[in-house]
Amino acid sequence: MSKVRKILISQPNPPSGHHNPYADMSKQYGVETDFFQLIRLEGLDASTFRKQHINPLDYTAVLFGSTLAVDHYFHLCERLRIQVPESMHYYCISDAVGNYLQHYIQYRKRRVFPAADHDYMSLLPTMKRRPQEKYLMVVSDNYNEALIQQFKEHGITVQPAVMYHTLPVEWPKEKPFDYDMLVLFTPQAIMSIKHNFPDWEQGDTKIACLGAKTAEAVVEAGYHVDIQAPSPLFPSITAAIEDYLEKNNG
What we know:
It contains nine helices and eleven strands. It is an alpha/beta fold. The chain has two domains: 6-38 and 169-248, Rossmann fold; 42-166, Rossmann fold.
């Protein structure tokens, strides 16, 4: 089995001053890590959003899965000339997303409800205590329909509202695509690769995926997954990659 020498991390390079686990990996295993964001998000304009026939003011609560979802919600409301009421409740995938709301609202705990362990289902007890609440979820055009169904199975209706598109980033023509391993974090990442390199064959290239949905997208695209996290053995994608390098790079 050939050794891994060059790895594509399909994320932006970590900001200066932040811990970069891939830098530690590079030193320990003698690999080159290259960062490149394969996808970009583009917010909908007001006229495109209106085609969904959704009025944000018809809802008493908003669900956010990321800080980008927060940005797109408030920016779109501004384009629609909607004044978000102070009574609005916010259900967030994490404390970090909840805290980010302070960029747009006066933060009050009784209005912001963060999920535990990045699991929306941990919010169910709070949501069930509010049977009159009407929920709007800010999503991209390739949102997780299974999650909406999961809420429904618990007796909670959540209306998805597409407020931004996920689009492939054009690969620079002068940049070689010669990696021994691709690390993918979203299902759309493999679609970006197919967009940029329609004739690309995986060959000996290893593919590492974060999340089951990402892995499913890779297989559906006709490739195979070599590394997947989280798993019972590896809670993080970096831990899974390090284990692979330890076994194969020596």
